[in-house]
Write a structure and sequence with these properties.
The chain is mostly beta strands. The chain has a single domain (about 5-160), classed as OB fold (Dihydrolipoamide Acetyltransferase, E2P) (Beta Barrel). Helices cover about 10% and strands about 40% of the residues. It has 3 helices and 12 strands, in the order ββααββββββββαββ. It has helices at about 20-25, 30-35, 135-140, and strands at about 5-10, 15-20, 40-50, 50-55, 60, 75-80, 85, 95-105, 110-115, 125-130, 145-150, 155-160. It has a 5-stranded antiparallel beta sheet. Strands 7-11-8-9-10 form a 5-stranded antiparallel beta sheet. Strands 1-2 form a two-stranded antiparallel sheet. Strand 1 and strand 2 (about 15-20) form a beta hairpin. It starts with 6 loop residues before the first strand and ends in a 9-residue tail after the last strand.
């Protein structure tokens, strides 16, 4: 992606998306493209008013383009590891997670956190998070510590959606 001015993402011989590397990364056209182009955490749930309800986690943003979708419409939120804000305390309705693993990687720290409600169908068993070194040090985190995750950027897809190719 570093040397190309345009890329083509194909899935089983079908073009999923064509665009600049930045456009494909920032606005993936399908769940496949989102997963193919980089690490991503997937949260499954149903629309409930202005939230995506996973059963344990209410994402407080209605997905763009979901105006026609009624309550109980299944959606999936695709969130990259660096698109979370990590909090030690919160007044929001965010479920708690426990830090399972910490890996310093120079300017970034990679963490694995386990939702306290991991048995919920909508939450992954382990959530990958990346924090800038400065943020990690400010939080002074340790394995086993309770934290809360707030998504800062999310890619939304209706469940079962195979978006039309973006060429």
């Amino acid at each position: 992606m570093e040397v190309a001015s345009r890329i083509v993402v194909m899935n089983k011989g079908r073009i999923e998306q064509v665009g600049t590397p930045e456009a494909v990364y920032d606005k993936p056209a399908s769940p496949f493209v989102s997963s193919f182009i980089g690490n991503v955490n997937v949260f499954h749930g149903r629309l409930q008013g202005e939230t995506l309800d996973t059963g344990a986690w209410q994402l407080p943003i209605r997905p763009p383009g979901s105006d026609e979708a009624g309550d109980d419409t299944p959606f999936a939120a695709y969130i990259r590891p660096h698109d979370f804000e990590l909090l030690k305390t919160t007044d929001e309705k965010l479920p708690g997670c426990r830090v399972k693993f910490i890996q310093p990687m120079g300017s970034v720290y990679r963490l694995e956190v386990v939702p306290e409600h991991a048995a919920s169908d909508g939450l992954p068993n382990v959530i990958d998070v990346e924090l800038p070194r400065r943020d990690f040090r400010a939080l002074d985190l340790a394995v086993g510590e309770r934290v809360y995750l707030r998504p800062t950027e999310t890619h939304w897809f209706e469940a079962g959606e195979n978006a039309a190719p973006q060429i």
